[in-house]
Amino acid sequence: MLGSNDFRSWCAAVVTAVSWAQAPAADPDPVAPVATGQWVFVGKVTKAQAGPVGLSDPPLRSYTLTFEAAESLRGKAPKDVAAFRYQVRQQNAPTFPADQSFLVAVKLQDKNWVVSYIGPAEKESVEKAKALLALPVGWTVEGGKPVSPWAGLRVRAWPEGAAKPKGPECSKCGRPALLVGDAVEFTVEQVPAENPQKFKNDMYGDGKFKVTLRNTSDKDVEVPALLTDGKTIFWADSLFVMVKDRPHLLVGCGRAKAAQPVKLKAGESLIGTVDALLADGVEWPRGGQRVYFDFVLGEKTASNFFYYFSQLHDPMREAAQKKAFEQ
Known about the structure:
The chain is mainly beta. It has helices at residues 4-22, 123-133, 310-326, and strands at 39-53, 60-74, 84-89, 102-109, 112-120, 140-142, 145-147, 184-190, 208-215, 221-228, 239-243, 246-248, 260-264, 269-275, 288-297, 300-309. The chain starts with a helix and ends with a helix.
């Protein structure tokens, strides 16, 4: 249990962190959404099939896009996927000239591969994308220096005295840029509700998700981005969520007392549970609405959602966050 002074100090750190994560940049970088892409590449649009157009103002326009990739910047083309869904809300229909190169990011969302970013592959944009993709997802570059989503935690962003691996670190809090590694697969699944209520939480649960890391190689590996003291895994100090491309730390972060990498034997899987209701600073909807999350661990992301029903989940969220504060 935290003492009263520790509790107040930790609350202040969390508020600072959330303010840091939520505050819009003075000059938002339009390329930033590439960071959540599971496959990021430079290529050309070989086919653009227009779909439904919404009645909103501006209208939501839907397309199915097919690409010819020239250079992969992160990940690989998903197997058995020939085309990708793309939606954009704008007055005029976008154009995709056959002779133009685009910077593209795609990710798996709701069982469909979707385009999360597409823009002209100008030299400056590609260089910015490469700089972001060299860091864990959610990190930014300010004045040429890396800044992590944990920056607002300051001294609590990294356990005191814990060794740091070589490589980049946050210019504001000193947290190192920790990755998962190519051999490890990262997936997220909905956990069914403990007390299902029809038309509320019976289909998509209450915001709890099963997180699985699987070593796909035939060798033992370390997972630097997942912190442990050898017994306890510090999920809240390792993983966060992004909603609409903004990072949200989990209530309970900033308490890790050690920072050893989790180790996985060849073929081994590790499973944990993460409660998305602990994501601080999220603008939760009124009434009922799907909320989509990008779960972030190092350079890995996994997208999922649940249906937030405010009458049911507001008190559930408040109780969960209070419990996390008091532990």
